From TrEMBL:
Residues 33-53, 85-169 are annotated as: Disordered. Keywords: Signal. Residues 85-113, 125-138 have a biased composition (Basic and acidic residues). It comes from the Bacteria. The keyword Signal applies. The keyword Lyase does not apply. InterPro entries: Cpx_auxiliary_protein. One of its GO terms (cellular component) is outer membrane-bounded periplasmic space. This is P pilus assembly/Cpx signaling pathway, periplasmic inhibitor/zinc-resistance associated protein. Residues 1-26 form the signal peptide. GO terms for molecular function: unfolded protein binding. PANTHER family: PERIPLASMIC CHAPERONE SPY.
Length: 169
């Protein structure tokens, strides 16, 4: 049960971070460590469903605002110690990139990272609620066609994940 909860939280955070990197970044600067990490992702490395949706500038702006709001809400859930761990991990990853090394992105690494944060059940529940709310808000910005494309992308990703799980017992 605990592993399932951590996986859900890790997946939700990964989804939001991934979605953020695909939306066009606003020209505003922020001291938020999570926002700073996302703004440093080169455009040529960005992949995912958001590019293929054909978002309008208005949709991009709305999605960016939803993501900023949810990021701020989630950051408020973390304790100062947890924030320090997150910042240290992001700085280590940034140093790897600057040294020309490719950061490790395995699922196990993410699970261990979130386990190291020692989130309380209340924190996990709050983060899950924030993620679900922001997901619904972002989906509401999309047209029915865009929603269908996004749903198909997620279904394909789920199938690929299941296939990898079956081939790596």
């Amino acid at each position: 049960m605990k592993l399932k909860t951590l996986s859900l939280i890790a997946g939700a955070i990964a989804l939001t971070l991934t979605a953020t990197s695909f939306a066009v970044q606003a020209g505003t600067a922020s001291s938020s460590p999570l926002l700073l990490a996302q703004t440093q992702t080169p455009k040529k490395e960005r992949k995912g469903p958001w590019q293929s949706l054909g978002l309008t500038d208005a949709q991009k702006a709305q999605i960016q605002q939803i993501q900023r709001d949810s990021r701020t809400q989630i950051e408020a859930v973390f304790t100062p110690e947890q924030k320090a761990k997150i910042k240290a991990a992001m700085e280590a990853r940034r140093a790897q990139r600057q040294a020309g090394e490719r950061p490790q992105r395995g699922q196990g690494d993410r699970k261990n990272f979130f386990a190291d944060l020692n989130l309380s059940q209340t924190q996990k529940d709050q983060i899950r609620q924030i993620r679900e709310s922001s997901k619904k808000q972002m989906e509401a910005v999309l047209t029915p066609e865009q929603q269908a494309k996004l749903k198909q992308f997620h279904e394909n990703a789920r199938q690929r994940h299941q296939q990898r799980q079956q081939s790596n017992p």
